[in-house]
Write a structure and sequence with these properties.
single chain; 568 residues; mainly beta; Immunoglobulin-like; 5 domains; eight-stranded antiparallel sheet; six-stranded mixed sheet; 3 helices
Length: 568
């Protein structure tokens, strides 16, 4: 600012400060124009540069306040009459460790003892205290700074030191640049014991370079897993060996659940946090795979059919965890009344093991034809989640209802010997043979008397047996030659020598063969008896007995046939 410009300022104080500003700029080697404008940076190469280039008006012999004077009581300053001062910042080192302490010494010239100087450092977030003051004593002063030891590896950082006069936001009187902070906070790591874990197993994690000592937290991050895949999805652990700030270690483990569903491999990660399970994430693991060992449950044994009054066995494998499982019957054309029980339970002893259970059907008295059902296996209860459902199972209708209820078994005689072929009668023609008419009805006894009617003829009886007691019935056929008896559903269709209740086949002299079956009083059971005379004597005699009925040939009131079909 030119002299005439200074003269226009309003007070002596403003004029004094303006002159000192221009003089300071020149002593700093900066450019001062004729009009007083100051430009350019500080330049120590200029011949008019002076190291003492900061003024202190307290050192002026006469200091103005407005247009008045300030009584400067500093006798030394008045004697020296030098307003120019110097601040020399001298840290004890140009580098300081995170968590360490750096002392900063200040050499001062022409600064009055007792003067307060304000200091600050840049990158305030790296320091617990980033600004403060010191008091000049014997042309010197000092202060310390301590960078925070954080938990992140960010490499070497730098900061600047600034001195100010008057206040923490006052005029800058000196700076010192590029003091280094050495990073001693190693990056935390989390390392699983393996990169995969089986369902139902545990996996441990080691964590390093944490600090300070204390409690830390972990949380599972689902990639394709879900909460239900783990015993717990978060937890805590303690850090050891870390001290107040140094790098310590910790560990924890988590357990997966052995479920009963085949969903394939799944993945997750784990984060370590400070403060709480929702706190700041310190480190996150890489991806970890959950190996699916829960194979899909399947029925390995399912009966194709079960006769009414019989029991069927079912086996299921790959059921997951050992324990109790439940089964329920799903009616297709059956009903609850067709079973002794429509639900139940069974146990497995091993993971992905097998389980077996049985289902018993009811031998009812109604002819409803074949019926079907399926079975579902469930967890937790009979209304729990379905794991697997069987294929269709048929209930064979063995309780046939006699139509017409005509007394006796219908007897048909044929010329020729059936030669132990049960289907022979289907194409043979009824005919009178000896004393036997082509067709007749026997109501009291079922027999072919030993009257030697001739050689090579066959007889078949059709109808129903209606027991009067519920118990095991034993039937007997005494014949010369072959004879067979079927009772129940196989008496109607599918009858073979292999499924006959009584198989007294082949050519032979009179011999008796028996067979037993449990029957229910009042129900009609289809009956088929076949007999053949090959040569020699001929005989067929039918008997039955029970634990309460003595062996007898009398069938009065217990045998019937369908008069509309002459049989079943």
């Amino acid at each position: 600012m030119a002299a005439n410009g200074i003269s226009t300022l309003g007070t002596k104080e403003l004029k004094q400060v303006a002159k000192l500003d221009i003089d300071q700029a020149k002593r700093e080697g900066r450019v001062v124009a004729d009009n007083g404008t100051i430009t350019g940076p500080e330049d120590s190469t200029k011949p008019y540069y002076r190291a003492r280039n900061v003024y202190d008006r307290d050192r002026m012999p006469t200091q103005y306040s407005g247009d008045g004077t300030v009584n400067n009581a500093h006798a030394v300053g008045l004697l020296r009459a030098r307003p120019w001062t110097a601040y020399d910042i001298n840290p004890t080192a140009n580098i300081v460790n995170e968590g360490g302490t750096l002392t900063v010494n200040i050499a001062l010239l022409e600064i009055l003892d007792g003067t307060t100087v304000y200091w600050s450092v840049s990158s305030a977030g790296d320091f617990g205290t980033a600004l403060g003051t010191f008091v000049v004593n014997n042309d010197s002063g000092s202060f310390t700074v301590t960078p925070i030891k954080d938990l992140s590896t960010e490499g070497t950082e730098t900061f600047n030191i600034t001195l100010r006069r008057g206040s923490s936001s006052g005029t800058v009187v000196a700076t010192f640049a590029n003091v280094e902070i050495f990073d001693v906070s190693l990056t935390p790591t989390i390392t699983p014991a393996a990169n995969s874990v089986d369902e139902g197993a545990s996996l441990s994690f080691a964590v390093t370079n944490l600090g300070p000592n204390g409690t830390y937290y972990y949380t599972i991050n689902h990639v394709t897993t879900a909460n239900a895949d783990f015993d717990a999805v978060n937890g805590s652990f303690s850090l050891t060996g870390g001290g107040a700030q140094d790098n310590g270690t910790g560990s924890f483990s988590l357990s997966t659940v052995a479920d009963r569903t085949t969903e394939g491999a799944q993945t997750f990660t784990v984060s370590v946090r400070s403060g709480s399970i929702s706190g700041t994430v310190i480190v996150t693991s890489g991806s970890i795979t959950v190996n699916d060992i829960s194979l899909t449950p399947a029925f390995t044994v399912t009966p194709a059919s079960i006769d009414e009054g019989a029991t069927g066995s079912f086996t299921v494998n790959n059921l997951g965890a050992a324990g109790t499982y439940y089964y329920t019957i799903n009616h297709v054309t059956t009903a609850n009344a067709d079973f002794s029980s429509v639900s139940g339970s069974f146990n497995t002893a091993t993971l992905n093991g097998n389980g077996t259970f049985t289902i018993t059907t009811i031998a009812d008295a109604t002819t409803e034809g074949a019926q079907t059902f399926t079975v579902s296996v469930r967890i937790n209860s009979i209304s729990g989640t379905i794991l697997v459902t069987s294929g269709s199972v048929t209930v064979n209708d063995t309780s046939l209802t006699a139509s017409g209820d005509t007394a006796g078994l219908y007897k048909t005689t044929y010329t020729g010997y059936f030669a132990d072929v049960p289907t022979w009668f289907a194409t043979a023609t009824p005919a009178t043979f000896g004393a036997n008419p082509a067709t007749s009805v026997q109501t009291t006894v079922i027999e072919e008397p030993a009257t030697d009617d001739g050689e090579s003829f066959s007889v078949q009886w059709l109808g129903y047996f209606k027991p009067t007691t519920t118990e095991t019935h034993t039937f007997f056929l005494n014949s010369d030659d072959a004879s067979y008896m079927w009772i129940g559903a196989t008496a109607v269709t599918g009858f073979t020598t292999g499924n006959a209740l009584i198989n007294n086949g082949g050519g032979h002299a009179p011999q008796e063969v028996s067979g037993s079956i449990a029957l229910t009083a009042g129900e009609y059971y289809a009956v088929r008896i076949q007999f053949g005379e090959q040569g020699g004597g001929d005989l067929l005699e039918f008997n039955y007995s029970t634990p309460t009925i003595v062996k007898t040939t009398t069938v009065t009131g217990k045998v019937f046939y369908n008069s509309a079909t002459n049989g079943h």
